[in-house]
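Why do we care about 3D structure at all? Because function follows from shape, and shape follows, mostly, from sequence. That is the central idea of this module. The next example makes it concrete: a single protein chain, its amino acid sequence, and then its structure expressed as tokens.
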Amino acid sequence: MNSYRIGRIAGNWVNFTPPIRGGLFAQYEKDGPADISKDPISIHAEQLSQFFSTTSPTLDLKPDEDSICTEGSTVPEPPSNMDNTELVKKALDHDLDQYPSLDALTQRAIVEKYRALHQKIKAEGYYDCQYRQYAKEMGRYLCIFAAFFVALKSEWFITSAALLGLFWHQIMFTAHDAGHQGITHNFVIDTLIGMFVADFCCGLSIGWWKSSHNVHHLEHDPDLQNAPLFATSPSYLASFHSSYYNFTFLWDKAAEFAIPYQRYTYYPVMGIARFNLYILSWCHLLSCRSTTLGSSKWTRPTEICFMSIYWFLFGYCLVWRSIPTWPLRIVFVLVSHIITMPLHVQITLSHWAMSTSDLGESESFPQHQLRTTMDVECPAWLDFIHGGLQFQAVHHLFPCVPRHNLRRLQQLIIGFCNETGIKYKRLSFVDGNKDVLGKLGEVAAQLDLMIKCQKHMAETGESGLH
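And the structure:
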């Protein structure tokens, strides 16, 4: 990293809002002296507060509250007739009440403890990959794939479809590891492993995954931007702009129709979610984004080659040539893709039931991760089913730690949370599902209330809230 260093600062660093998320900064004046009547932080805070107070569709900030914003508050207000301001403020107040203060001293103390924990993790070898565990994983993958091939040759088409889906479900855990460079910690080697597993074996772009997933691990998570099908917080009950997709999700009749039923459509949509990943993968590879974000010159053409081979093998050789009839082909494709549903449920489980409020740049990285992520408790013998994703909060704190070390690392995280006073949420898989469905139902009920209030105001001119 030394080659990228442009200087050093004296004292403690103060975070700024990046320009991509609405951060405004004093312009450099080449021909004249800069205005030094205010320090850069004050200039930034004043501009940011003014920006939000005039453009935010979800929260009107006062000048002394510049450290707090929401997902939809970083862009000019899009067309919307929904007002979710009070609901967003309520969610923000809840988080501010439940978690450590955002004052500089408190957050700095958390960061210092986090850095000390990181040094301990490095010293005790938590970043060392247990390659013998991957030998076991490869044995399991090969057994499942062999069983799929035998069932296909025996013309047990539905059975073979289920086994293929199970193969995809299991092997994608290794793609996740490679995407985080958690196997060899070498960019080229882990990228090639990720391409072979994700692009060649599963038809999904590891480049798209890394591009999206890196943002997912920070904030303004694109995985939470699922309008018009789902809204996981009141912030999404209005039009909002995605800084990742550079696209404005407009609140429209489709969202108004779908959101009230989201707790019932959750599992059906998760069952076919893999088809959406195919689309996102190709959209990424065919866009300029695939050549700029965490990629090298060789990654894009290699991915296109691998994914093209996948579609030739899966689409032509398997589905078209090996399955005799159209009804069987359709059932085969649906079964093989629906079997991967637990993977999509697992991914959403750890985030959708948690807070999605953005408390701003003053919140420390470890507090933000623990506030927005939960872990799923399960016995050690079931780890292969969850693939390490059950330790999502632990993983978010230290993304490059190999997943086979996460169960051990969890004990250190528990101690860290006890020291800092940050809540560490852990639920069983069943209770986690109940939490997600409860959250989806709660947001749907909030939408129903908003619509009723809106209609009442249109008819009477009064809010109806007494």
